[in-house]
Amino acid sequence: MKHLLKLMDLETKEIIEILNLADQLKYDKKNGIEHHYLKGKTLGMIFQKSSTRTRVSFEVGMYDLGGSALFLSPRDLQIGRGEPVEDTARVLSRYLDGIMIRTFEQEEVENLAKYGSIPVINGLTDYCHPCQVLADLMTIREHKGSIKGKKLCFIGDGNNMANSLIVGGIKMGMSVAIGCPKTHKPDADIMKWASESGDFLCTDDIFEAAKDADVVYTDVWASMGEEAEAEERKKIFAGYQVNSELMSVAKPDAMVLHCLPAHRGEEITADILEAHANEIFDEAENRLHAQKAVMVMCMKDKN
Ligand code: CP
Ligand code: NVA
């Protein structure tokens, strides 16, 4: 695996390899066993959007692996003043051993990989959030014992999370159901691929989507970059909430996951979030372990 640009680029066996390594790294960290697989290496982290989990888990992850991480804000980089990504990629490739980027356009991430000569890891775009979904799959396996055959339901906006959950879930043999308004469906090409590749449903009936689900997932109604639409989105998504009524149609032992940050009273009620806090904060923790596995697989053997 050279880069992690989107989950569609990974084979199922590579996803399983990441999850297995992530489990091992988690176990070893808890037992005080260190693995300096990336000793002497430096990861540059470009953030064009805010972050708590991604920023901290990548930085701590590099430290755990014996390397170091540089936080690169667009306020400080020339990229913020219009230096093309094609040039930034070639320059940063001369100094760094890997780049993590969080930005708007998926194309920017793909171009960074195309023009640079070092591994590029996608830390979220408007199109997808692969690192989050690897942590989600790790958490599902941890809590449920297995992934294949389980039903994953996502309620809300057909956004970057929905896109990556569809791809990750289908590749791992899950049944995936999206409950979203007809006007805010996930990416059309991803849905077409999912319908042809596995058990996939997209409906505006959230009860149909959540029926017998093993995992109920939700995310904010207005993503980063959509702040101006927040009020309008509150009206559009008012019926797309994870609450006790919805959970009553899922399996009795269904998990609830949320990539966070959460808006209580919007996409999820406070009582459901608190009832499933154990799962949701395990999920947040697993960002660290899953990303360490991704960094090892992308950067370990690169000079
Ligand atoms: N879930 C997630 O990516 O969180 P941050 O935006 O805090 O990085
Ligand atoms: N859909 C959200 C995910 C945040 C982790 C966003 O893009 O803001």
Structure description:
The structure is a single chain. By secondary structure, the protein is an alpha/beta fold. The two termini are 15 Å apart. The chain has a 5-stranded parallel sheet. The protein has 12 helices and 9 strands. Helix 4 links the parallel strand 3 (98-102) and strand 4 (120-122). Helix content is 44%, strand content 14%. Helix 1 packs across helix 5 (130-144), helix 5 crosses helix 6 and helix 5 (130-144) packs across helix 12 (277-299). Residues 124, 159-161, 219-220, 223-224, 259 line the site of norvaline. Norvaline (NVA) binds next to helix 6.
| Average predicted local confidence, pLDDT | 97
- Biggest sheet, spatial arrangement of strands: 7-6-5-8-9
Broad shape = globular
In DSSP terms, counting alpha (H) and pi (I) runs of 4 or more, how many helices? Answer: 12
The CA-CA distance between the termini, in Å, is 15 Å
What is the radius of gyration?
19 Å
Tell me the β content. 5-15%
Main sheet overview:
5 strands, parallel
Order of helical and strand elements: HEHEHEHEHEHEHEHEHHEHH
